[in-house]
Amino acid sequence: MSVPAIVLVAVAAATATTSPLNQLTADEKKQGWRLLFDGKTTAGWRGFKKTDFPSERWEVRDGALHLRPTGTGDSHGAGDIVTTDTFSDFDLRWEWRISPGGNSGVKYFVTEQREGPIAHEYQVLDDARHPDAKVGPHRQTAAFYDVLPPAADKPLRPVGEWNLSRVVVAGNHVEHWLNGAKVLAYDLGSPETKAAIAKSKFKDVAGFGTKIPGRILLQDHGDEVSYRNIRILARAP
Q1: Could you tell me which residues come within 8 angstroms of residue 221 by beta carbon, excluding any fewer than 6 positions away?
Q2: In the beta sheet, which residues pair with residue 226?
Q3: What is the pLDDT of residues 4-19, one digit of tens each?
Q4: What is the rounded radius of gyration, in angstroms, for the C-alpha atoms of the chain?
Q5: Are 66 and 58 in contact (CB under 8 A)?
Q6: Which end of the chain is less crowded, N or C, counting CB atoms within 10 A of the terminal residue's CB?
Q7: What are the pLDDT digits (tens) for 38-65?
Q8: For the whole model, what pTM was predicted?
Q9: What domains, with CATH codes, occur in the chain?
Q10: Closest CA to 119 of 50, 227, 207, 231
Q11: Neighbours of 133 (CB within 10 A)
């Protein structure tokens, strides 16, 4: 890398780390964006199928929603948290930082009518260390978990660094983004998506793969993870 390139990277990194956290710009406010996390409280979130917030699992730390590790392995979703509001068409953006060997995820189209938090998931993972990544790219970071893989050349940052992710839902079209790059696009109800679901663990889940107004869920898989700058632009269907 040339010296000018190094300088540009350093400037970009400094800009990213000094930008105000969990705040909307004036333009974002005009466009209708809203924060799902204010950086100070857990307002707007509660446990999945619960009325309260699982504060024994999550805390607000350094401007982020921080999930404590169990120290004993998979928590089986005991601390999964969902938004109090539901969304149908939207542009969702957030930053996340995973721990070494960690596993988490951001789910959308979440309904509490199902027995468990089964929904479309944007996978959040330590691809280098977690065994789930060895199953295949359809279980790696930015995948439509267990259904569709992201691009092989996705710009994933190392464990311990913050990544910027995005999910866009417009009609039946869905996109997964990672650090400014679109890494996956699929259409609900398309032959390709239906075929992929038929090969997944969700093949027998009624209604899976169809669009429903649902909540956003941050997954508790027992591993340490942090989320911040969570914002959403809801659109009319």
Answers
A1: 74, 75, 77, 102, 103, 104, 105
A2: 66, 97
A3: 443 444 434 433 444 6
A4: 17
A5: yes
A6: N
A7: 999 999 999 999 999 999 999 999 999 9
A8: 0.90
A9: 22-235 (2.60.120.560)
A10: 207
A11: 18
